[in-house]
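The instructor's notes for this session suggest beginning with a concrete chain rather than abstract definitions. Hand out the sequence below and ask the class to guess, before any prediction is shown, which regions might be ordered.
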Amino acid sequence: MNINQIANTLLGRTPSILGHEKFIKFAVLLPLVEVHGEAHILFEVRSLKMRRQPGEVCFPGGKIEVGEDPQKAAVRETSEELGIRESEIIDVFPLDYMVSAFGTIIYPFVGRISNLNNLIPNEAEVGEVFTVPLSFFKKNQPDSYKINFQVEPEDGFPFDLIIGGENYNWQTRTMDEYFYRTNDKVIWGLTAKVLTHFIELMEQYNLNE
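After discussion, reveal the predicted structure:
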C-alpha cells in the first residue's frame, strides 16, 4: 500500500468518536409542556421497582437499539414511558451529546408534548411525573460540586514500560455535578447536566423571558 492509496481510502471520511463501538448509547428527551399558558419542563420519578436509580428524578429515555436513530430512540422511549403516541411528541431538536467517563454516549433532545392530559405513565418504570416552570430554572442557579476521579492502575500494570514508573504523574479528572431543589425533589446527575445545558442554550439565544 502506498501513500496515494491511503489518501484515496480516507477521502471524504466522516470522523466519529474513537472507540465508539464499545460505548453503550442512550437517548433522552427533555419534554416541554404548556401549563396555563406557561412553558414547563416535565420530569419523571423513577419507579421504586427499577433496578437502577429507583426513586430518582429523570427525563424519559433509554438505550438506543441496534440500528436505531438516536432521535427515534428518544421519542420511542418517551412514548413508552409516558403512555402517549409518538405523534404527540413534536418539535424535537438535538442538544449537545455527551461522552461519559463510564463508557456511555448520551444523546439528549428537547421536544414538546402536545397534550399533557393524555399521559398514562408506565407504572413499571415511572413512579410519578411532575412539571416545573421553565422560568424557575432561569431564575435559580444550581448548586455545583466537584467529583474527583482517581487513577488506579490494575495489578500487574507494566510500570517498567513508562517513564516515571510507579511515580508516574497521572492527570486527574474533575467533573462538575449540579443540584436543583424544587417541588420537594432533587434534580441532579445526568438530568441536571442536560437541564443546565438547555437553560444555558436559551440564555445564549436571549430567550430569557
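Then share the key points. The mean pLDDT is 93. The two ends are 60 Å apart (CA to CA).
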